[in-house]
Amino acid sequence: MDSAHGLTENRIRAELRSARRTGTSDAEWESFEARFDAEFPRLQSLFHRIYGPHADSELLQVVLDAAASWQDRPADLKTLDASRAMAPDWFSSNKMLGGVCYVDLYAGNLAGLRERIPYFRDLGLTYLHLMPLFLAPEENSDGGYAVSSYRDVDPSLGTMDELADLARELRGNGIALVVDFIFNHTSNEHEWARRAVADDPEYRDFYWIYPDRDMPDAYERTVREIFPDDHPGSFVQLEDGRWIWATFHSFQWDLNYRNPRVFRAMAGEMLYLANQGVDVVRMDAVAFIWKQLGTTCESLPEAHLLLQAFNAVCRLAAPSLLFKSEAIVHPDEVVQYIDPGECQLSYNPLQMALIWNSLATREVSLLAQALERRHDIPDGTAWVNYVRSHDDIGWTFSDEDAAELGINGHDHRRFLNAFFVNRFPDSFARGVPFQDNPRTGDCRISGTTASLAGLEAGDGAAVARILLAHSIVLSTGGIPLLYLGDEVGQLNDYGYLDDPAKAGDSRWVGRPTYPADRYATRQDAATDAGAIFTRLRHLIDIRKTTPELAGGRLVPFDTNNAHVLGYQRPGLLDGEESTVVVLANFADSPQHISAETLSGLPETALELLSGEPTRLRTGLTLEPHGLRWLRV
């Protein structure tokens, strides 16, 4: 294939042949060339759409970098690439279970985390997401999201060699390693940032730097403020008077992806991490990576093209690496990032928010509507479903969806905010407001699952609510993700208020240190920690023996009861068609599902959680916050 204005494919092939090292075997080089044949036309097309044919010289360097990275890739990772190519839907198994934690808070350092691997195996983890652990400024780190080097681990946690060793040991225990790839911005202490500010010609265009306010003012007419408490607008002033784009915090500077050298540099960092044994990269703040004057600079078409181009590069040099999108935006935009050629995995922020909505309202209409309308995604992809994350909870449901159910979105968000920060009568929740605006009622919610569900308030239904919420993420399809410590009911940690570096960010309330006392009693069902852990382990174990819960296919089931959520998970059992019907009661009182509603099902079903047959012909009564997983 010839490029009309740039390099020809034959020229690139010639350059590639010269890049082959003497120690690279014929088989390994042939595998790279086969992937080049499959992926290069797509990569070149994407590069041209983003940068134009005049950037083919950078494209050549990207391909040569990929060839070098493939030849550097450890043999055990190449073996993993080959095995996952034979089972590309490995992440859709009903045996998948994810966990997420901060290394320092949960285990002290990487060595301490390795000591917890036996527990991870006992819990059933197959996927471990470590929150940002790369070198970051001591003071202004944004929880590690202000990266000063993608190739250096925070020294207090360990070294990159230790991370690679941890990845290898996790892999040997059947656990995939997930890390954040913060690629919208770097910290202001990154070498690229330092050299850009120093006007180094190689780096001056790595960021958006302007001599005066003319262009910043023009952009800010249409972009929104993300963290106005940190800095108003989207730009901050440098010491020399110039202005630099900083979407999130004043110390996080946005990269300029209009410069193809930035693409090449970040692709190199990504491949380096893949060669350390990282299985999945969480693509942070994907909606913001492309800027266009006169737009919101969020979720623009070029953002998707860039993700697809990064994906194509990884297929060349680290073919088993997966992307997970983090797009906390309108539900219509979230799904636009989910595709086998873009991001194979995606957080499911809508389901998460609506689980909490149903717990507060005791009604399931919005959640049932979302499962019916917004759950399906392409084959070869999967949701990552979670009850809560390290971050705040934002009410990301669509106002249009809510209006169809007679709900005013603005007013309902104000209610939810009030409810979850205990400003509503009889609320069980003890959340903490984040980015609170008392004038408008706008805010987002911070807190641990247990504190939000009522355990901190001493509410008697708290344990049942915690299990109910987790049962949804365990049974709707995709990868269920636990915030580690929540499985033993960890509570809010208000100690963050005593740390000047954290006191201004209420999200730290939901990031406690390792709750050793709760883990110590996790086997004692008479304790809150034990009641949560033992019953949650039971749900996890049943899921792993229920093949119908693999994949993501979900069929709605109308319970004709405003308080009871229903859905069906069709699949195969021993090669035969089988379906599991899930029922979940969000009410504080018993709820009955009529015989007429269940009349389309067989007379009896096997209730998987109890292991007992259940008669359906006379209807079914669920206890408060009760669950049924019915195989029919």
UniProtKB/TrEMBL annotation:
All copies of domain Glycosyl hydrolase family 13 catalytic, residue ranges: 102-527
InterPro entries: Amylosucrase, GH, GH13_cat_dom, Glyco_hydro_b, O16G_dom_2
Signal peptide span: none
Name recorded for this polypeptide: Amylosucrase
Pfam family, one: Alpha-amylase
Family matches, as SUPFAM superfamilies: (Trans)glycosidases, Glycosyl hydrolase domain
